[in-house]
Amino acid sequence: MSSLPKADMEALAADWAGRLSAEDRRFSAIAIYGGRGFREAATAAALLDARLMVVSAGLGLIDASLTVPPYACTVLAGSPDSVAERVNGTFSKVGWWAALRVSSPFATDLAQAIAVQPGLILAALSDTYLDMISVELCALPLADRERLRIFTRVPLERVVKPLRSCVMPYDDRLDGPDSPLRGTRSDFAARALHHFARHLSQGQDGRSVADHVDAIRVAIGSWRMPEKIDRVRHDDGTLLELIRSHWDKAGGSSSRLLRLLRDDLQIACEQGRFAALARQVREERA
Q: Rounded to two decimals, what is the model's pTM?
């Protein structure tokens, strides 16, 4: 994305799609999306014998079985590969998703994918990605939205009203001492989905949203919240040095490295800030 000339969103999406089409290299989506969040979602899909799809800021909605080109594209601000850095005028995540959906040669139409897929629609989404596809989710027919279950760490008041009833009530107890699936904020949604798939879903699950909400509240009701830790804050220069010095120990894994900084070194670092710094170190080592 960083090499593209600036343009309005529709023109940028078309240019980006042309670059994707022209790229000869192809890899399985499973190989490209190798982080813990994807692995948790893949585990959930296997448990339920369900179709696994990926909401990608660079490709659109894709089937995880596809082979796709490698790419560097994000809607998170501050990254060299952020779409926002290449857009002339006002950038919006919703607008980019709409343009990408039309232009990407790999994208699948969400409504069509859902229409031919019976049963529950389980969506593990971070705050950024939930914002990005919220308009498309709201546009689904009511009968399809009633099948939708959203797993996210986004506070309910920040979710658009038509989707609030679809949000499953997982909270910080998922990272507490009683949880079997502790992790980072970045993989919270997928871990919640994994827990639901392993412990609460029931075969051809025809239960209502309210039934699922009640089941989750019962399942995690006795879990304790994680202990609050006052972590030390550092400037970007110090964090970069820490990331460089612990890179090999974490095996180059961003999720393991963030866990190491937060849990072992008791260092405060927001997910978006860490991602940008880790990307810088990865490029230095390339």
A: 0.82
